[in-house]
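mind reviewing these tokens:
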Amino acid sequence: MASQTPHQNVSFPSEGQTAHGYLALPAGGTGPGVIVIQEWWGLTDHIRDVADRLAAEGFVALAPDLFGGSVAHDGDEAAEMMSKLPEELGARLLAGAVDYLLGQEAVTSSTVGTVGFCMGGGFVLALAAQQGEKISAAVPFYGVGQGVPASYAGVRAKIQGHYANEDSSYPVEKAHAQEQQIREESGAEVTFFYYDAPHAFHNDENPAGNYRADSAEVAWGRTVDFLRQNIS
């Protein structure tokens, strides 16, 4: 269970300052590294739980705090917080998290995987484009927002996307276009899965009530298998 997974709050250098995050370790103490990137709500209990769930599957999971400890309580507040995080700054802060995670003795892999949701899904793609060979597996869940990069030319990771057919925040036609753009610009192996669900269907604490247990379970199983196969 997530509550039995060793975890701790950590600090690491990034962009000439001290960044913070949540680190979850597997029961065995070591494993492949995964960066978990938050939604626009902030580093919530749900995102910490995602890191714990990955740790329970044998990964060393780090969830960086992009909002400096702030957590939004409604959509307006979340949108305002996201607007104050420039895309380039967010990606650079995440780059510090990658270096920190790869430097941990507990991490057995020479690359890391990334998983992110909504805004964080966009930053998953930006980080993969920025970090090249350091990211071997990237998993965006309905990756939208200002984190989405303009170009995917730098992507070297394999990508598995999870998108929603009933997404009012990011129409499925745009998701199909994003999938094709990544494939064409990066030459990477790209697989997107589409679910008959709304935006944020994986978040069981979503204030809008968009959680869909069946879709979330299938997507999570695919994510874990994909990360196991592609982080080395």
About this structure: The radius of gyration is 16 Å. Helices lie at 45-56, 75-83, 87-102, 119-131, 172-186, 213-230.
